[in-house]
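Exam revision sheet. Question 4 asks you to relate a sequence to its structure. Input first:
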Amino acid sequence: MLILGIDTATPQVSVAVGGHEGVLASTQSLRGRQHAEVLTPAIEFTCRQARIELSEISVVAVDLGPGLYTGLRVGVAAAKAMAHALRVPMIGVSSLDLLAFPVRFSNRLIAAVVDARRGELFSAFYRQVPGGVQRLSEQHVATPDDVASELLATGEDCLLVGDGGLRYREVFEGLTKVEIVDAGLAHPSAASLVQLAHAQALREQFVKPWDLQPLYLRKPDAEINWTTREAG
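Answer key, structure tokens:
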């Protein structure tokens, strides 16, 4: 079983290929909002590095968000089109789950935070469990101050992972029990996506392409601005 993982939920575009042998190849590119321009060449390059043909892919996995609206649309649309063309099932994984997964060996509370722009964060809390992490809270939108208050209220040592922690470092650095994970793990990874999707694929937790929907958590900026203009 070969899985193609596509992640465009944040400014980073990430692609990986893997299966029961682990991740065979992965590519990351951080070029602002050029998701559409970067994604197809990244898929082609990753397949070449893995020495496989696209026709060998048996599952397409995609980051469902939350994240940047335009990036999510590009990644989910491309993943759906590819799954439809290859006639293979899909698996969707949350971007916050993907952020928490690489730090799964920590026994501290894990807070995954994605920069949602407009002074807000997408966030959720996690705890280490055998084989990975378990989400403890709903994925939600909050201000950095609100997330800081939530962390303080737990009274626990915590790892803060994601670009949201780096963007609002000044809010979290004063919290004595909180460690901000460095920039190397600031964005969701398609390599983690392939690993998590492989476990779901073994349990046959597939989704039909037409049933898979992005997780936005809030309306896109353009829709919010239009609603504000109408109200005015």
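Marking note for examiners. The CA atoms of residues 2 and 13 lie 20 Å apart.
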